[in-house]
Design a protein that fits this description.
Blueprint: E1 4-8, E2 14-18, E3 29-32, H1 47-51, H2 60-67, H3 75-86, E4 91-94, E5 99-104, E6 110-112, H4 119-130, E7 137-141, H5 149-162, E8 167-171, H6 175-182, E9 190-196, E10 203-209, H7 214-223, E11 236-240, H8 243-257, E12 265-269, H9 276-291, E13 300-304, H10 308-321, E14 331-333, H11 348-355, H12 360-380, H13 382-392, H14 394-407
Parallel strand pairs: 3-7, 7-8, 11-12, 11-13, 13-14
Antiparallel strand pairs: 1-2, 4-5, 5-6, 9-10
Helix pairs in contact: 2-4, 3-4, 3-5, 5-6, 6-9, 8-14, 11-12, 12-13
């Protein structure tokens, strides 16, 4: 990229402009285009290799070496980003020609970067530059390539944080990238479409700004593979930890005790405690992207079981969302650690027996069998079941009635 270029103006005058330098810290642009991968990495560790902006991963080892210096101001950020996005730290490893990079297993064993999947260099190449960039422009082509969705979302979070001091121009075919980055304040989404000129038979690309209209933004997501559904059907949402709670609440407790919620409240199971936070974040990002505002702010609730881990998750969610306007009473915790404890008394002996099973797979099978029998009993004996659930699940019923009052 070094050198000069000559442009001719309308008055036939000639103007000379410097290309942006291709060495840090004078560079303006960090290019991450489709040809960024290389068959081999340069093992040379010196100042030119470390500061060179090549547009490829050829000097990745030198950049790793720089950030692994504990005295570097971005060293801690680099280590945290590696653990958060990749799952483990990537460190310098001495080699015959200089230095490589990889994961240190112990004092003498390691797994080299060249032996890992192609997604790791894709992630690492961005991480090493994002950690030191300030007032730069990133040109990124398809950041989703070869990357697991969880790692991609973590990478996008880092990009969002770094966008406070840098500008990003990103092309993508991913609905995840579009949704996450398109929901950031002041971001713009453009759609590129191709058609063929009838006369010349040449392909023509057209770039148009996606309007700040829900229908247009939904259309973009659908074209990128997002499953279409009625985004405006529900007045409110209830996020639950497990599917058993979601089934009982949706099929029985809402119709019996909070019927006004039947066509207004969408219940959603995260399937596990660890997924409650990420699923709620995906939900929030989706609607911020579509409507350019948090249309469901304080119209969604999170309800998890009792327990220390659950308390920690809720505390983290409150810390994240309350400062932006969410009310604390939308992040709720039950008194019981297992939702089966809210089944009627007639099932509690079996519940105690199942919860005592140490084998997780066997316990899951028994839980699934039990909830099917609870459903069959409740459907066959609705009057009796309603009376017994009113007593056994009173705490959950009170939560639903409170939600009903708030959204009505």
């Amino acid at each position: 990229m070094a050198g000069r270029t000559v442009l001719t103006g309308s008055n036939n005058s000639r103007h000379n402009f410097e290309h942006t330098p291709n060495s840090e810290p004078a560079n303006l642009v960090y290019p991450f285009l489709s040809k960024r991968k290389v068959p081999t990495y340069d093992e040379t560790i010196n100042l030119p290799a470390m500061n060179s902006v090549t547009g490829t991963f050829s000097n990745l080892y030198a950049k790793i070496n720089r950030l692994c210096n504990v005295n570097h101001p971005s060293s801690e950020e680099y280590q945290d980003a590696c653990k958060e996005i990749i799952g483990f730290p990537i460190s310098p490893i001495p080699s015959q020609k200089g230095q490589q990079g990889g994961y240190l297993v112990d004092g003498f064993s390691n797994i080299l970067l060249s032996s890992m999947g192609e997604g790791i260099p894709n992630l690492l190449g961005l991480i090493v530059d994002l950690c030191i960039a300030d007032d730069k422009i990133f040109l990124i082509e398809e950041p989703e390539n070869d990357i697991h969705p969880h790692a991609l979302k973590a990478l996008l979070e880092l990009i969002v944080r770094k966008s406070k001091k840098n500008q990003f121009l990103i092309s993508t075919h991913s609905n995840i990238v579009t949704k996450y980055l398109g929901s950031v304040v002041d971001s713009k989404v453009f759609k590129v479409s191709m058609s063929f000129d009838v006369k010349s038979r040449l392909p023509i690309s057209t770039v148009e700004l996606v309007e700040n209209d829900p229908r247009e933004r939904i259309k973009v997501l659908e074209e990128l593979g997002y499953e279409p559904f009625d985004f405006g059907q529900w007045k409110a949402w209830l996020f639950l930890e497990e599917s058993s709670a979601e089934i009982i609440i949706r099929e029985f407790l809402i119709p019996w005790f909070a019927n006004k919620l039947k066509n207004s409240l969408r219940t959603f199971s995260a399937r596990s405690l660890s997924e409650v936070g990420p699923k709620f974040k995906d939900f929030n990002n989706l609607f911020v992207f579509i409507h350019l505002e948090t249309v469901y702010k304080n119209k969604a609730w999170v309800l998890v079981d009792s327990g220390e881990a659950e308390s920690t998750i809720l505390a983290e969610m409150k810390e994240k969302y309350v400062p932006s306007g969410w009310s604390e009473d939308h992040f709720l915790q039950l008194d019981e650690h297992d939702f089966e404890r809210y089944y009627p008394h007639r099932f509690q002996n079996e519940v105690t027996e199942i919860l005592a099973i140490a084998n997780k797979k066997q316990k899951m099978v028994r839980k699934k069998d039990l909830i099917e029998r609870v459903k069959e009993w409740a459907q066959a004996n609705p009057v009796e079941a309603k009376a017994e659930f009113a007593e056994s699940a009173k705490e959950v019923v009170d939560v639903l009635r409170n939600i009903s009052r708030q959204i009505s």
